[in-house]
Amino acid sequence: MKRIDRIIFQAIVMGDNLTADDVLRLGNHARFKEKLFMVGDTCRVSVRKLSNSASIFTVVNYYYINSLRFTDRIRHYLGKLRTTAFRNMGISEVIVVIIDDTCL
Question: How many angstroms separate the CA atoms of 103 and 98, rounded?
């Protein structure tokens, strides 16, 4: 079974002394505001600390190509076409958001 991993959302979260839970809360809040193109409903969320005041929140959509339903398989192939078209135009398909918690 071939597993597909696609980064679909990244948030750069800046703020003073933010914990991993704070970054996760702020990142999820920003993620649910966006309309994300997902195949299936499984995703992996990670938080990477860059410094005391900056972290990266990443959402990776993953799925196994052989276990997809018909409609999700069509979404997979449409996603591949969309990605190729975006790359040919020089556009990234990943949604990137900057969250500055010091202003809130």
Answer: 12
Q: Per residue, what are the HEC states of 22-69?
A: HHHHHHHHHHHHCCCCCCCCCEEEEEEEEECCEEEEEEEEEEEHHHCC
Rounded CA-CA distance 5/76 in Å is 11
For the entire predicted model, the pTM comes to 0.79
pLDDT in tens, 9-29: 999 999 888 888 999 999 888
Residue 17: left (phi > 0), alpha (psi -120 to 50), or beta?
left
Sites in the chain below the pLDDT cut of 70: 103-104
45: left (phi over 0), alpha (psi -120 to 50) or beta: beta
Pairing status of strand 54-64 against strand 3-14: antiparallel
Confirm if 10 and 96 have CB atoms less than 8 A apart: yes
**Tokens standing for residue 84:** 């190729």
